[in-house]
Amino acid sequence: MKQITIVGGGLVGSLLAIFLAKRGHTVNVYERRADPRKTDTYAGRSINLVVSHRGWTALRAAGVEEAVKEIVVPVHARMMHDRDGKLNRVPYSIENRAIHSVSRGELNRRLLTEAEKLPNVSLHFNQKCMDVDLDNARCSFQRAGGEVKEIGADVVFGSDGAFSAVRAKMMLGRFSYSQEYIEHDYKEVAFPANADGTPKMDPQCLHIWPRRYYMMMGLANQDGGFTGTLFMPHTASADSPGFDTVRTEAEVTTFFKTHFADAMPIVPDLVEQYLRNPQSNLVIVRCDPWTYKDKVALIGDAAHAIVPFYGEGMNSGYEDCKVLNDLLNEHGDDNWGTVLDAYGKQRKPNGDAIADLSMRNFVEMRDLVADPQFILRKKIEGHLQAKHPDQWLPLYSQVKFTDKPYVDALREGQRHDRIMEEVLAIPDIENKWDGVEVEKLALGMLKSV
Ligand SMILES: Cc1cc2nc3c(=O)[nH]c(=O)nc-3n(C[C@H](O)[C@H](O)[C@H](O)COP(=O)(O)OP(=O)(O)OC[C@H]3O[C@@H](n4cnc5c(N)ncnc54)[C@H](O)[C@@H]3O)c2cc1C
């Protein structure tokens, strides 16, 4: 069995530690920040996340599904809020399947606790990775302002997030890398529960205020409140306000009154929160290769940071862990060269595909959910799925409710786009959407495009 160093004890590093320790390896996790179970590391970062099918598959394989189930809230539908406060509920799947909202901090604490129960896992906090000797799997860690120590291992995993120190070291060799900041930044606001702890909006829905160039989302917390996230361009344009033009109390008040009027009574201190809370940006990172010989591998955001609009960043990182575990089952725990090579080759195209899918879903959430053509398309796809579940599975369901590789889901989604373009062009489609003509065309084209 091997000595493994995991750099980064966040959402993915903590799950990876569980997988590898359960195989019998000795696992040391080094985390830059303090232990989130002892300090309020997550203060001011109340983000909650969606756990979906792939995440659950991995959590189950690691034996921690039940521990995580205790801290989630099921979400069955999108609830669209239009400018007049009119609501439109669109279920995520025709079988009423759910995705699950969970607090980022709570999930991280839970997984660290599960990891620490294993005798061969040691967690080291306040340890920042400063350097990696890739050929010898040795890492240098520094305690805040203190001494630097070198730790040797057989294999090193970089699960140290979008700005990975392990990746930075790999970049000194033959390594491709791209980093793109999207035009949108985000800011969080907390939606409180009623005084008696009941929620002010339907907690089983992901609430969306789509406004074409900017949007707000609200996702339920276990305490009856919601975490709201406003996504808006960093810089205003002729089409849209930006964080740079919504700055003063007067500007913020006018902005929310004009565009999100129904949220104002629900969040009495909306304007104060906006003025107080930090503005964060969103980055897409792609790199290649994800591994170095039989010694080092990147996993989670360190390998593929993506925008959060499919809610798949963590889920895809969890899938990385599960795939790695499957490859260890297949090739054995002494064949790290073969395992890491196969892991990188299998996961890299899927990392790229979920990055593309996530940008695509941004456009969908931001502008399309309010578009009648889009709503009609969803209705047609739901109808096709209900009648022919073996032939038609909408893209969203493929991504969120199956383990189908992201590359295949993306390809299938592009096929569906071409088919739906033809279907929506049928004259008088608004009145024929559930007729035989539509079925014949769509299913016929499935065989040919
Ligand atoms: C607004 C928003 C909403 C999101 N919503 C969802 C969602 O609904 N569903 C979903 O699946 N994903 C979502 N994501 C994505 C998700 O947050 C990330 O994909 C996930 O956190 C990646 O986990 P990770 O462990 O790879 O990286 P991180 O969570 O970034 O963890 C990296 C860890 O490494 C530590 N670290 C960094 N550098 C060093 C170093 N030099 N030495 C030691 N330790 C170090 C950090 O302190 C951190 O603890 C969202 C992201 C954002 C921004």
Report on the structure:
With 449 residues, this protein is of the alpha/beta class. It folds into three domains: 3-73 and 102-179 and 283-361, 3-Layer(bba) Sandwich (FAD/NAD(P)-binding domain); 181-281; 371-448, no CATH class. The protein contains 14 helices and 19 strands. It has helices spanning 11-22, 53-61, 65-69, 104-116, 165-170, 249-259, 270-276, 313-331, 336-366, 372-387, 395-401, 406-424, 429-432, 436-448, and strands spanning 3-7, 26-30, 48-51, 73-75, 77-81, 87-91, 99-103, 121-124, 127-133, 138-143, 148-152, 155-158, 176-191, 205-210, 215-220, 226-233, 279-288, 291-292, 296-298. Strands 6-5-14-15-16-13-17 form a seven-stranded mixed sheet. Strand 10 and strand 11 form a beta hairpin. The termini are far apart. Bound molecules: flavin-adenine dinucleotide. Flavin-adenine dinucleotide is lined by residues 7-13, 30-33, 47, 49-50, 128-129, 159-161, 165, 186, 229, 300-302, 308, 311-315, 317. Residues 7-13, 30-33, 47, 49-50, 128-129, 159-161, 165, 186, 229, 300-302, 308, 311-315, 317 line the site of flavin-adenine dinucleotide.
